Amino acid sequence: MSMFLDTAKIQVKAGNGGDGMVAFRREKYVPNGGPWGGDGGRGGNVVFVVDEGLRTLMDFRYNRHFKAQSGEKGMTKGMHGRGAEDLIVRVPQGTTVRDAETGKVLTDLVENGQEFIVARGGRGGRGNIRFATPKNPAPEISENGEPGQERELLLELKVLADVGLVGFPSVGKSTLLSVITAAKPKIGAYHFTTIVPNLGMVRTHSGESFAVADLPGLIEGASQGVGLGTQFLRHIERTRVILHVIDMSASEGRDPYEDYLAINKELESYNLRLMERPQIIVANKMDMPESAENLKVFKEKLAANYDEFAELPQIFPISSLTKQGLATLLDATAELLDKTPEFLLYDESEMEEEAYYGFDEEAPAFEISRDDDATWVLSGDKLEKLFNMTNFDRDEAVMKFARQLRGMGVDEALRARGAKDGDLVRIGKFEFEFVD
């Protein structure tokens, strides 16, 4: 089994806030001591941190659930509960994080040590010391902690490389990577020898250096899932320059120019923006018979079918086996990289707006529906948060929740929908009777 994994779906749950406490001073010689219950502590966040030592999402293959600790409950003597520590989850460089429900990109983690909070912990509930007023100096009210954020995430790894090697299987991409870098990819005389991306660092004679990724061979239909192409085409997206490797010897009976057109078609079909990357054509296997003649025909076809106002891509004849022409190719690649800017992977429509963990003022505070058993069902983020933070073990807290519902207009809305005295109303799994 390959130890390379570049996609994963996980669930994260931030910690709940600690519950506030109801307590009173009962010390000797302290008359009318009053409330003394402290607030609960903050729940822990779930934080992704980039670790440059990781190269795959294999750690998420079996461990798919990440839950931060909840905050400590409030204590007597007005003491606050301790906040929980954040849960640190380490991810490799080049990890894109999406919300599984909306498909929006939350963040693109590319810098070593970069951090991003993917789920925020709930705040602690208030103790009864917070609810004391001149009218009610000894309240028996406290809040439960706010629930931590919970979400399902899609992780997608796109390797960090300046240059990507693309081409049909067995055109010599792995051999080329092995001679220009210290990488040791698997090399064999059969298709799809490379089944995972391989990375290597190149250093030119002039001292320039850049990262090269050798990607599994593409075939026609790769963008629709044929072969291994669709699984690894994503790794080309971060590259700034594409080296299009072509078997100029036509050793497998294919036309080199048709190969060139077919691969570009797959890149364009997968992501039109890949065609914005500058390409260098690498005419490989020039040590083989008929390669020189095939290269001459290739150049003629390329010139004949290219827009006369467009600049023809550079072509470098090389032989990975004899190392012919490699120095010139690497110098030209380094020069092209110097003048090629980074490409923006995601536009604004794909990115989720900066996370806002409060309530949308324009969104309705609650919604009313009716279940099959004729029970009225109340839902809505604001209403459900108030419900979750209410301590129903305390009569005063229950009465406070009832006043909050009335203030939100729930009573009037239920009457307008036809609710009558004695009808059942449900919030989550909690049911109560409507009193008109």
From TrEMBL:
Enzyme's top EC category: hydrolase
Assigned GO CC terms: cytoplasm
Gene Ontology terms: biological process: ribosome biogenesis
Main location: cytoplasm
Record-level Gene Ontology MF annotations: GTP binding; GTPase activity; magnesium ion binding
InterPro entries assigned to the protein according to its UniProt record, in alphabetical order: G_OBG (IPR031167), GTP-bd (IPR006073), GTP-bd_Obg/CgtA (IPR014100), GTP-bd_prot_GTP1/OBG_C_sf (IPR036346), GTP1-OBG_CS (IPR006074), GTP1_OBG_dom (IPR006169), GTP1_OBG_dom_sf (IPR036726), OBG_GTPase (IPR045086)
Domain OCT residues, every copy: 358-436
Domain OBG-type G residue range list: 161-338
Binding residues annotated for GTP, in chain numbering: 167-174, 192-196, 214-217, 284-287, 319-321
UniProt-annotated location(s): Cytoplasm
Entries under Pfam families matching the protein: DUF1967 (PF09269), GTP1_OBG (PF01018), MMR_HSR1 (PF01926)
Keywords: Cytoplasm, GTP-binding, Hydrolase, Magnesium, Metal-binding, Nucleotide-binding
Record-listed E.C. numbers: 3.6.5.-
Residue sites binding Mg(2+) per the record: 174, 194
Domain Obg as annotated: residue spans: 2-160
Requisite cofactors: Mg(2+)
Domain of life: Bacteria
NCBIfam families tied to this protein: Obg_CgtA (TIGR02729), Obg_CgtA_exten (TIGR03595), PRK12296.1 (NF008954), PRK12297.1 (NF008955), PRK12299.1 (NF008956), small_GTP (TIGR00231)
Its job: An essential GTPase which binds GTP, GDP and possibly (p)ppGpp with moderate affinity, with high nucleotide exchange rates and a fairly low GTP hydrolysis rate. Plays a role in control of the cell cycle, stress response, ribosome biogenesis and in those bacteria that undergo differentiation, in morphogenesis control.
Complex formation: Monomer.
The protein's name in its UniProt record: GTPase Obg
Name of the gene encoding the protein in the UniProt record: obg
